[in-house]
Design the sequence.
DNA sequence: GGTACTCGGATAGTGACGCTCACCAACGAG
DNA sequence: CTCGTTGGTGAGCGTCACTATCCGAGTACC
């Protein structure tokens, strides 16, 4: 198929596809002659993945390129590939370690991980962007005078852990290793907007249950 | 306190504070004379809230203004005020209702709400941005060949509902109505990055538990 | 074989966003 | 009186995700 058809089948404008090609988000098509290139189903699939990451996952173009690099990198083990992809996701700015709220948040999060027995997460704390994001979020609450501590966080963490278990169980239903990796990466990126939407919908449901529509 | 002190105490540059004032995210200070304005603790608090929304919650400036308008609008009831704030949050682009995947996703989500007995959410479906986001996310999965149906979604929805229950329980611990509203809005906005961070950390924990660090 | 169309590729431009800079006249401390 | 600082304003910056335009080379159709 040629560029125009790829565009038609994906619903993405030719100009945008050209942009993705230029940015290295799509591998170039098979060159037939100076003015024609041939694309296949794999290109279509990759294009849809890219669109999903950018539009649904709000992943910036540069990060998409990075994530795809990890997905295609056969030299990594499973944990590393998944981790590398997750870590490439958009991040919160670095916490200011001098800040007293940040320091208190560090303590709180460390206590939380102890309470939960998340030993691996503790080991990853120094390098994991998720850990840093958590510290930043907790610090933001504290700065506003809301003292979220272990007591408040633990039930949320428990629920999120169950969510993660579901994620991985779903992943394991896929037979081939390659497919599992793609699903894991994809799931890590697309699950979040989905969870967020479910969470907001659940909040609306619960709010109206408790207080009605007024 | 004057602008420079507000800047020092909040860690936000004076230029940025001026920008927020111009954009109406902060109410103007009490004018003392042509070159001096006085700000108080309320300004500081509001500024921290704005920063938290923008930096942690990734809420665009225009949305922050909108949300603050709802927070300050005493004419609304609780559900409406919370709803108005939640609905002002960044959204996914409108789903293309012509698209077959979107139509299938609609069916799937409707079936999900039936299964869960989320009657209020069903009523809100036509107007709720959360509902639309959910449809877009499910459609994105389907387009990539992963058929997330009621079976896969229901356990996630159940967990998210429990999360929402926690949210509202936490909100109800606050004594005054005004404080509850602020906490609810804030929670709705800041909880998401926090949940996301917990989710990612839980994924890392669970991945390494199952497959080690390799 | 003529011609109108389409192809891919490349360059430059767009509009939104979140600041950030430079400048200004008006003050206030020494 | 001088000099630094104040709050307010207009314009500018860098990034991002496209998008519009042009080009010369091929292709389909009559």
Sequence:
């Amino acid at each position: 198929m040629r560029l125009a058809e790829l565009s038609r089948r994906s619903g993405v404008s030719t100009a945008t596809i050209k942009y993705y090609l230029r940015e290295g988000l799509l591998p170039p098509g098979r060159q037939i002659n100076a003015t024609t290139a041939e694309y296949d189903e794999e290109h279509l699939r990759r294009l849809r993945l890219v669109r999903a990451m950018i539009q649904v996952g709000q992943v910036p173009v540069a990060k998409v390129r990075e994530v795809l690099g990890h997905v295609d990198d056969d030299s990594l083990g499973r944990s590393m590939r998944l981790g590398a992809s997750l870590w490439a996701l958009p991040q919160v700015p670095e916490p200011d370690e001098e800040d007293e709220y940040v320091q208190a948040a560090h303590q709180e999060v460390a206590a939380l991980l102890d309470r939960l027995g998340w030993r691996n997460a503790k080991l990853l704390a120094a390098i994991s962007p998720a850990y840093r994001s958590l510290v930043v979020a907790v610090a933001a609450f504290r700065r506003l005078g809301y003292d979220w501590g272990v007591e408040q966080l633990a039930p949320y963490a428990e629920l999120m852990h169950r969510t993660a278990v579901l994620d991985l169980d779903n992943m394991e239903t896929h037979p081939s290793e390659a497919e599992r990796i793609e699903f894991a990466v994809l799931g890590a990126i697309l699950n979040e907007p989905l969870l967020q939407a479910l969470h907001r919908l659940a909040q609306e449901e619960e709010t109206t249950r408790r207080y009605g529509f007024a």
User: Anything to note?
Assistant: Residues 13, 15-16, 18-19, 23, 33-36, 54, 60-62 of chain A lie near DNA strand D (CB under 10 Å from a C1'). Chain A has ten helices and two strands.
